[in-house]
Amino acid sequence: MDNNKEMYPTEIEDLEDYEPAKSRRVYRVIGFLIIAGLIYITGVEQALFFRKTPLGTPQQEAESLLNAETIIVSLNIIVFRNNGNFGSGRTQDDIAQIVSNASDIWNQADIDFQIKQTVFIDVSDDEIRSFFENPRDFVLALNEYDPEAINIFFSKSLVDLPDVTGIAFVGLRAVAVPDLTTVYDFRVLAHEIGHILGLGHSDLDKSSLMYKNANSFDITEEEVLTARDTALKF
């Protein structure tokens, strides 16, 4: 009888053995969620996964899909500067590289970007935060804003959007690209400009420039036609 009891535990004994193991698994899951939350809240995620694109990073010029007449699109560059948490550290060389490489990507549509002006403006962290919270009010009150160009705003991060690598304000013809990104910053810029030129996200093709968070740059012929049609209206 005793041997049988050892070989075939009762249901109560089974439950006693099972509950501690179950509790340990629950605690592990809770612990993981707490750690993940702390990483997100404290900004450690930025330090682990977000990087500055090194100066000199190449982007092969993409081949034209239409061999059409080149459309020139003007860019108005606005760099937020301060010694706080959100001011951009970009230099003129950084800006030249990101625009040149983005142009190489958009060569597929025979669209070329030219910098109309570059301005560095001193703003506080609170002002940068207000830009992301109320972009329309901020931009329309900004003397440096140019409604006839695509306005490119550079800051160190996107403030309260730590897991986002870029954002487009389509109605304002404006995009924001942080210094620190999870993919090449010039592909982020090319992607966000794609939104300004009328393109949505591509949810299926990871090789597409418009695939969310992908480090890719392909554009379809249909997207080329849409982008060119929009660019001609600028």
Write up this protein.
With 234 residues, the chain is α/β, with parallel strands linked by helices. The protein has two domains: 20-49; 53-232, Collagenase (Catalytic Domain) (3-Layer(aba) Sandwich), CATH 3.40.390.10. The protein contains eight helices and seven strands; from the N terminus they run αααββαβααββββαα. The chain has helices at 2-7, 11-42, 44-49, 92-106, 125-133, 135-140, 185-196, 221-231; strands at residues 51-52, 71-81, 111-122, 150-155, 167-169, 174-178, 180-181. The strands form two sheets. Strands 3-2-4-6-5 form a five-stranded mixed sheet, covered by helices on one side. Helix 4 (92-106) packs across helix 7 (185-196). The longest helix has 32 residues, at 11-42. The chain is globular, with a radius of gyration of 25 Å. The termini are far apart. It comes from Candidatus Colwellbacteria bacterium RIFCSPLOWO2_02_FULL_45_11. The chain crosses the membrane at residues 26-44. GO terms for molecular function: metalloendopeptidase activity; zinc ion binding. Residues 181-216 form the Peptidase M10 metallopeptidase domain. InterPro entries: MetalloPept_cat_dom_sf (IPR024079), Pept_M10_metallopeptidase (IPR001818).
